[in-house]
Amino acid sequence: MDQIAKDTESLKLGDSSSPSSSTTTATTTTHGPAPPPAPPSATDNNNNNNMDMDITSMLPELPPGRRTHNYAGMTLEETVADLKTHPLFMTELDPAAAEDNEELAALQALAYEGTPRENAANFKEQGNECFREKRWLDAKEFYGKGIAILVGEERRRAAGGRRRVRKEGAGTSSSSGGGAAGKKGVVVVLDAEAGTRSAGPDLSDDKEKEDEEGQKRVGNHHPDDDFEEVDDDPAEVAAEQALLETLSVNRAACHLELRNYRSCTVDCAAALRLNPRNLKALYRSARALLAVHKLAEADDACARGLALDPANKPLRTLTHEIARAREADLDRRKREDERLAREKLRDTLLRTALQARGIVTRTTPGRRPPDMEDAQIRLSPDELDPASGLVFPTMLLYPCHMESDFIKAFSERESLEQHFGYVFPLPWDKTGEYGVGSVECYVENARGGLVKVGKKVPLLKVLSGGDVPVVDGLLKVFVVPRARAEGWVREWKEAKAKQVQ
Asked: Quick one: 425 exposed, middle or buried, by C-beta within 10 A (0-12, 13-18, 19+)?
């Protein structure tokens, strides 16, 4: 409290002379121009400089590799583009530019530092984390990286190659001068494709030299001097294969979630080649095969799994699903067979009915049949009853007025007059030229000529004998006003004559 009192007294809060003097000054300046501002003192300049220094010290530092970079003459776009070449600021990776990017190479090397099994196990853990979060695509990629490492080791062993390892004590002391790890900036990486270890990029200031084989040296040291080839440890090989089996099964699970069923079966097959008793591989393979409706193969995979573990609940459940799918498939096939049998019988009965009546049908080569929806030549009312009558889709054409009407089912027992009863009067016939007693009807015969049809004649009589074919499943009848019939017939014959010429 005593200190607060002293501070208050030092501020002279009770001094009334200062406000009164300020008031007096303010009153005086209202009657004249304002005095010029006082020039900044040396103390003010020092305070400003100290403030700038404080703000600068608060700014984050650039990465070590960028501290000496000169951005003074660069535009904003150029600066951003340059920063994006650093792994911390990258938004996309250009494979061509990545080869010369030392920072990126160093980060990539860290991911492959260690034995092949350790690297693959690291990718497996990352994949498992993504899988738990249901990030199937990311998990698949991580599992794939681990698989690529171990498959490279398998190929190396199959080709008779030996494992390349660091010599004991190599690179443990910087004074030796020959250890790869002892040199500044040299890291050991694992080639994911070939499964071999190699020296990473040299980020030191030492000058590089090339030997007679064109390989780079740092001083008198060659990166290969730190490594030797040894025989594979059977225990390590077994551990790698077990890990490869697990990675393959895990990636198969990702493919199953992503509905990449073929890829799922491929990964399961790879796991089963390593271990035919892998129940997860059998289950996921069966699940994928069921999804693509390969029921026999799915049932076989389940049977192999249950032979190993008869009490396996997922496999037993999947077996019931396959059985239900098989029953549904049998029902579907049965219905399809019945449908095909009905269609075959229907076509047979239709051909027999047309032949018995002497009716000819013809298809125009190279021409699509007209779209008549479900209208077609058929037996009616029952297509599977030989006693049913024939019906024909029929087009009534009015060539003098370029109009038409469509009759979906013209029975062989009906005449044109019966249909004219509901067709006439025509809505567009303003002069009343079309009526049952004022029109003439024609059909085209097999030779391209016209045949006059009586309006009271049954259709069967018109079509029987084969002189009037039904072309492309559609019967065409020309309806012409009697007053214009003679002229229209003449024009028809002239047009046909020109076509012959």
From this structure: exposed
Compute how many other C-beta atoms are within 10 angstroms of the C-beta atom of residue 68.
7
CA separation for the pair 321, 229 (Å, rounded): 53
Confidence (pLDDT) at 112:
62
Residues of the chain with pLDDT under 70: 1-73, 93-112, 169-224, 501
Q: Which residues, other chains included, contact 29 with Cβ-Cβ below 8 Å and sequence gap of 6+?
A: 35
Q: Coil, strand or helix: which one is 262?
A: helix
Q: Could you please report the per-residue DSSP string of 288-326? A: HHHHTT-HHHHHHHHHHHHHH-TT-HHHHHHHHHHHHHH
Query: DSSP string of 352-392?
Result: HHHHHHT--EE--TT-PPP--TT--SEEES-TT-TTSEEEE
* 387: its two tokens: 């006693």
Q: Is 327 helix (H, G, I), strand (E, B) or coil?
A: helix
389-398 and 163-166 beta bridge pairing = unpaired
Phi, psi (5° rounding) for residue 403? -125, 170
Residue keyed to tokens 């190993």: 308
**Euclidean distance between CA atoms 250 and 147, whole angstroms:** 10
Q: Which two tokens stand for residue 341?
A: 């049998």
Residue 183 contacts residue 218 (beta carbons within 8 Å): yes
Model pLDDT for residues 426-482, shown as the tens digit of each residue:
999 999 999 999 999 999 999 989 999 999 999 999 999 889 999 999 999 999 999
- Determine contact, residues 414/397, Cβ cutoff 8 Å: no
> What is the rounded distance in angstroms from the CA atom of residue 340 to the CA atom of residue 203?
75
- Tell the residue number behind the tokens 């080709």, with chain if given: 159
3-state SS, one letter per residue, for 469-496 = CEECCEEEEEEEEHHHHHHHHHHHHHHH
Neighbours of 430 (CB within 10 A): 7
Q: What confidence tens digit (pLDDT) does each residue in 66-93 have? A: 555 556 667 877 777 777 777 777 777 6
The Cα–Cα gap between 291 and 417 comes to: 60
Cα 83 from Cα 96, distance rounded (Å): 17
Lookup result for tokens 């025989």: 231
HSE at residue 415, side-chain half, CA atoms within 13 A, is 12
Supply the pLDDT for residue 300.
97
- For residue 492, which amino acid is it? W
Residues 168 and 335: their CA atoms lie apart, in Å, by: 74
Length of the chain: 501
The beta-carbon contacts of 190-193 under 8 Å, at least 24 apart in sequence, are 190/112, 190/113, 190/114, 190/116, 190/119, 190/149, 191/112, 191/152, 192/112, 192/119, 192/145, 192/148, 192/149, 192/152, 193/148, 193/152
Across the chain, how many H-helices and E-strands are there?
Answer: 16, 14
| Dihedral sign computed on CA atoms, order 491, 492, 493, 498 | positive
Q: Are strands 470-471 and 361-362 parallel, antiparallel or unpaired?
A: parallel
Q: What is the pLDDT of residue 217?
A: 54
